[in-house]
Amino acid sequence: MKEYILLLLLALCSAKPFLSPSHITLKNMMLKDMEDDNDDDDEDNSLFPTREPRSPFFPFDLFPTCPFGCQCYSRVVHCSDLGLTSVPSNIPFDTRMVDLQNNKIREIKENDFKGLTSLYALILNNNKLTKIHPKTFLTTKKLRRLYLSHNQLSEIPLNLPKSLAELRIHDNKVKKIQKDTFKGMNALHVLEMSANPLDNDGIEPGAFEGVTVFHIRIAEAKLTSVPKGLPSTLLELHLDFNKISTVEQEDFKRYKELQRLGLGNNRITDIENGSLANIPRVREIHLENNKLKKIPSGLPELKYLQIIFLHSNSITKVGVNDFCPTVPKMKKSLYSAISLFNNPVKYWEMQPAAFRCVLSRMSVQLANFRK
Questions:
Q1: How far apart are alpha carbons 98 and 295 in whole angstroms?
Q2: 258-270 pLDDT tens trace
Q3: What is the mean pLDDT of the chain?
Q4: Is 367 contained in some domain?
Q5: Is residue 130 included in any domain, yes or no?
Q6: CA-CA distances (angstroms) from residue 75 to 59, 100, 109, 118, 176?
């Protein structure tokens, strides 16, 4: 018993002191110097030694390891902004979150996260990723949030965990969403795919079959029309900064529960009659910075619509019944924001009754049109 107590005291005495934030800058400088010495071999990751073998006297980790240069606490491993070229090899097995953003990692290998069965969130934003091994996520069956934005991935990683609830792959080079990419991912609620060169043909039929997604953003892409094969469970759909020119009656037919619709900064000249009737629960619509010449039809029938942005279009007239229903009780929620500024409409010719279903006069934004 005395021998065990002596070993414990020796381990405590040899433990490294906690580094305060004032030492972080110096430590980063040391890492930089060590990286310069290893420039001859970009794949060398000697800064992060492998896990030491366990002592036969202690069949457990007396003191959990932390990758060199990283900060570890409360099952969170922070390794951001260290200039890493690969994933550290000695991440504690009970880790819940790994932060590897703002590094120089080009590839995720098969065993980089092997054994991290409790991993909940993985942040890999702003690296140089071009490849993720198909078997990378086989053991991370509790992963809920995966952030891959600002990389160079040409496709969505294969065999993603079925437990994933949030996937952000913004600003990559993804051109296609293949069929069965999200198969079995019933918990996927948020999908961010903006700033990818994705067009309508790149979304294969059946890509979202059987998937429950509430929020999808495919802005800053190459879409020329509203995608028709997205999940029917959508509550929010954001397609801003695309090349959409028309909205057809069938475009929203499968999105009955939609509550927020973003179509701003497109090239929309026409919205077919009856198109908006397919989204009766919508509460917010963005149509700013398009080429509309009139108020879209069907707005008075949207009982819950509260926010409608129509500024920076080519609207020349506002009718007395363009926004509000003729029967007051039909409107369940009053407008809190109607924006019409930067349109060639003569606001002094508008009848006050046109805005009879708004919360207050501050809810309507008007201004002179200037070329």
A1: 48
A2: 999 999 999 999 9
A3: 85
A4: no
A5: yes
A6: 20, 15, 22, 10, 36
Residue that has been written with the tokens 């969170």 in this structure: 76
Long-range own/partner contacts, residues 263-267 (CB < 8 A, 24 or more apart): 263/226, 263/239, 263/287, 263/290, 264/240, 264/288, 264/289, 264/290, 264/309, 265/240, 265/241, 265/289, 265/290, 266/239, 266/240, 266/241, 266/242, 266/290, 267/243, 267/291
Q: Residue 154 maps to which CATH number?
A: 3.80.10.10
> Residues 160-178: pLDDT tens digits?
999 999 999 999 999 999 9
Q: Give the phi and the psi of residue 166 in degrees, each rounded to 5.
A: -140, 125
What residue type is assigned to position 113 of the chain? F
* The most confident of 201-210, 211-220, 322-331, 344-353, by mean pLDDT: 211-220
Structural domain contains residue 119: yes
pTM here? 0.80
pLDDT above 70 (res 120): yes
Higher-confidence residue of 84 and 56: namely: 84
- Pair 103, 125: CB distance under 8 Å: no
Contact yes or no for 208/229 (Cβ under 8 A) = yes
CA 319 and chain centroid, separation = 39
Tokens of 118: 């409790």
- pLDDT digit string, tens, across residues 246-258: 999 999 999 999 9
Burial zone of 233 (CB within 10 Å; 0-12 exposed, 13-18 middle, 19+ buried): middle
Would you say 156 and 134 are in contact if contact means Cβ atoms under 8 Å apart?
no
Which residue, among 297, 308, 289, 299, has the nearest Cα to 365 in the 3D structure? 308
Q: Answer yes or no: is pLDDT of 239 > 70.
A: yes
Query: CA 80, CA 164: separation in Å to the nearest integer?
Result: 22
Number of domains in the chain: 1
